[in-house]
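Changelog excerpt

This revision adds worked examples to the README so contributors can see how folded entries look when concatenated. The first example is reproduced verbatim below.
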Amino acid sequence: MPGRTTLSTPLHAGESLVLEIPADAAYLTTARLFVGAAARHLGIDEETAEDIKLAVSDAGTGAMDGQVIRLAVRVIGDRAWFELESVGAQFGELDVVAGLFEDLTIEPTSAGGVIVRFSVPAD
């Protein structure tokens, strides 16, 4: 698919790594592994990668009433952007995510869901 890549190649501007999982707690481990691997691929240090995984777990846990959770990782300029989109549900409290990432944004979607975005410096 155009605009997507595998982890065996560099992630270039305009490309995304995307994972779509059911809104089921059993899949949160897969989501954590996905963002952890993406962070390591982008040269993000382990402490920050652990914070990203914690944020995904926290946000994902709050979106279990929905249908699907989409995760995307994009490089824009010198930042790696992590996005979580709930389809058909709102995310719960995001205090942990907000405490970890100052640039956290939360936007409603037209489908009744929410997109949560935050970024970290990319190497």
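The second example, added in the same revision:
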Amino acid sequence: MKTARYRAVEREFEHAERVMEKKHRVEVLRALLEMHQQQHEPDDEYIKSLRQRLKAAQKQLENMRPF
């Protein structure tokens, strides 16, 4: 039987995992953007989409409230 404390710890752990996953996504998008900016024109559509995705992921990470 799960206690209230156990459920709280479990939620906190799951939240920490989601935050780590989002941080990893931001890092990957940042690396992809840098790589493609070196290889292509800055107005390339793929680079524009990477910038948008990076900005969205950063905003989501920013909005993730700590427990």
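Reviewer comment on example two: The chain has one domain: 4-63. The mean pLDDT is 91.
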